[in-house]
Amino acid sequence: MGRLRIADVAERAGVGIATVDRVLNRRAPVRDETMQKVLAAAEALGYHNTSLLRRRMEETRPPKRLGVLLQRRSEPFYQGFAGLLTQAARSGRARMRIEFCPDLAPATVSDRITDLAEGCDVIAVVAADHPRISATVEALATRMPVFTLLSDLGTQARTAFFGVDHRKAGRLAAWSIARLARRPGPVVVMVGSHRYLGHEETEIAFAEFFRQSAPDFEVLPPIVSLEDAHMAKEGVLDLLGRRPDLAGIYIACSGFSGAIAALREQAEPGRAITISNELTIETRAGLESGVLDVVLGTPIDQIAHDLIGWMTGSRPESEPARRNLYPITMHVVENI
């Protein structure tokens, strides 16, 4: 069989040759429905200019309106993530709207998600799991894709999740403490809220590792910070006052600036092996000063790129996996 021609695509699509030419060369407007027929015909035939047809379709469509809800604006991690999402959306010819939630109250988060969805074609959210939030997502999912970021939700209505495997994060942090600690002793994990499914998975896996592989360590009840730096600082100072023999702590949430400040104030810096999440200016300084021993990172640059690809529909060849899990990066003072 010879090289496919425009005429073959036109015949398969049930349109005229001039219509296919207009799509390829943008000589005149073509209805979206007709463009879809032409693209489907080209893909079915294996036409050599199929990628150009797809690109022409994207160029003529209005930009997708994307919305993302992140948590506290004051956190450097979320500021950095917002910048990466905005940059990826700009590259994908999309209009991006990013909102930050001031607190974790389910009513507040639910209202913010609803407000964000107005005027958007697709949204993504970082949120704790709660019946009210899930109900909001389920209602919105009937008319638009809804993605979850960093911590998943219990509802099956969400389109897909993008983040790390929190069980692996919990076990990796526990393994690091067990290997680096000077001696067995009390260990603890700090979470933002037990409503975050990611934090719940982290806490369970953290304790599970010590129970299975390092039973000489004592796992203390978790510290809950509500993602607030002041609460994180007070929680760590209180714990250090009660358990000066602390062997290790894993700060698995935002608000780690407060926890780091508390660790700097303790009488003997470095006594407890300290693991934190996300490489930011603050955690980098913590590694350099010796307050932090290990930082576990989320590849937010790759997540931003992939998420925007799915949100804009620029990956039409397949559907995203229900759970898109990314490898955890591990940073110590020698590799930053």
UniProtKB/TrEMBL annotation:
Keywords: DNA-binding, Transcription, Transcription regulation. One of its GO terms (molecular function) is DNA-binding transcription factor activity. The keyword Transcription applies. Signal peptide: none annotated. Residues 4-59 form the HTH lacI-type domain. It comes from the Bacteria. The keyword Transport does not apply. SUPFAM superfamilies: lambda repressor-like DNA-binding domains, Periplasmic binding protein-like I. This is Transcriptional regulator, LacI family. It comes from Beijerinckia indica subsp. indica (strain ATCC 9039 / DSM 1715 / NCIMB 8712).
